[in-house]
Write a structure and sequence with these properties.
Layout: H1 2-16, H2 64-86, H3 91-105, H4 109-116, H5 126-142, H6 146-158, H7 164-180, H8 184-197, H9 203-215, H10 219-232, H11 238-250, H12 254-267, H13 271-283, H14 287-299
Helix pairs in contact: 1-11, 1-13, 3-4, 3-5, 4-5, 5-6, 6-7, 7-8, 8-9, 9-10, 10-11, 11-12, 12-13, 13-14
Length: 310
């Protein structure tokens, strides 16, 4: 059992640092092909079937909670649109925003900062201020200053002038940036607020919350969120699966960990996952399955040391 925990320690550490940059969720890796079956032999009856990829389905219908959020967000959007009509973007502010946006697009960050410095927040209406803070946040992020980016995004949100969908996006940016700074308690608060408004659940949001809970020594909540992240994802990322597997192993929930490792060897067929899957079967005192898993890995060329096949 101690060997299994040691094997999982590195995987858990790696999973905790799979935090994407703000606004960059990344494409889900494609699933790996199933492990090739071996020829029939004396041990064939003890050999488990190669794991089969899980079929994942997205929920087509909105839940009652989602419908409630959508109704509330639509009403809030109507209020924001009225505010934007009352406080439109004036011509000078609009020209400077366009110039700053062009500079950011061309990676002329310092020019963008200089342009935005010409705008005094106290003289702007709420909608203009929100847009200005938003552009300052992008400039700060481009300059490698995530703390300033977070502050400016939060100031943009505080104006209560942006449409709800855009504000939801900014709140998620804030959560990601805070995670990158290891501000875990704030990540939890930020994501809880994001969940209050977001109609569509993002698997990555649950993953970030799982990491934040783990880092703040709340393993039960971390496990719950990690399970949701993996269940929601059509193609769960490697770090998400290793985090879930490691949390199961840390609680000695070996029966629950085995299917996760089976998915890992399917999607990301690496030596360590085959070895850990074999160790799990060994922890369950099912040594025939433990050996059979090693044989499957050996036949794929993933085990090449004689002392690994026991």
């Amino acid at each position: 059992m101690s060997l299994l925990r040691m094997a999982m320690a590195g995987a858990l550490f790696a999973a905790l640092w799979c935090v994407p940059a703000a606004g960059e969720e990344g494409d889900a890796p494609s699933g790996a092909e199933a492990a090739a079956s071996t020829e029939a032999d004396a041990s064939a009856e003890a050999k488990p079937e190669p794991p089969k990829k899980k079929k994942r389905k997205r929920k087509a219908r909105l839940t009652a909670e989602q419908r409630e959020k959508l109704t509330r967000n639509m009403a809030l959007n109507d209020e924001r649109k009225k505010l934007q009509r009352k406080y439109p973007l004036r011509s000078r502010t609009g020209r400077l925003h366009l110039a700053a946006t062009a500079a950011l697009d061309e990676e002329r960050t310092e020019d963008a900062v200089d342009i935005l410095s010409k705008l005094t927040i106290a003289r702007l209406n709420p909608f203009e201020a929100a847009r200005t803070y938003q552009l300052r946040a992008f400039a700060a992020y481009a300059n490698g200053d995530p703390a300033a980016a977070v502050e400016n995004f939060q100031n943009a949100i505080a104006q209560e002038a942006l449409l709800v969908d855009e504000e939801i996006g900014l709140r998620f940016n804030v959560s990601q940036l805070m995670a990158g700074q290891q501000r875990w308690a704030e990540v939890i608060d930020s994501l809880h607020t994001w969940f209050e408004y977001a109609v569509e659940e993002k698997p990555i949001a649950h993953y970030l919350l799982a990491v934040a809970y783990y880092q703040t020594e709340q393993p039960d909540k971390a496990l719950e969120e990690a399970k949701i992240a993996v269940d929601l994802a059509e193609e769960p990322k490697e770090g998400w699966l290793t985090l879930l597997a490691a949390l199961y192993v840390s609680k000695e929930m070996f029966d629950e960990a085995i299917p996760v490792f089976e998915e890992l060897v399917l999607r990301y067929p690496k030596k360590q996952y085959w070895v850990q899957l074999s160790l799990l079967w060994g922890a369950r005192e099912n040594y025939k399955h433990a050996l059979a898993v090693q044989q499957l890995a050996y036949e794929q060329g993933l085990l090449d040391e004689g002392d690994e096949l026991e």
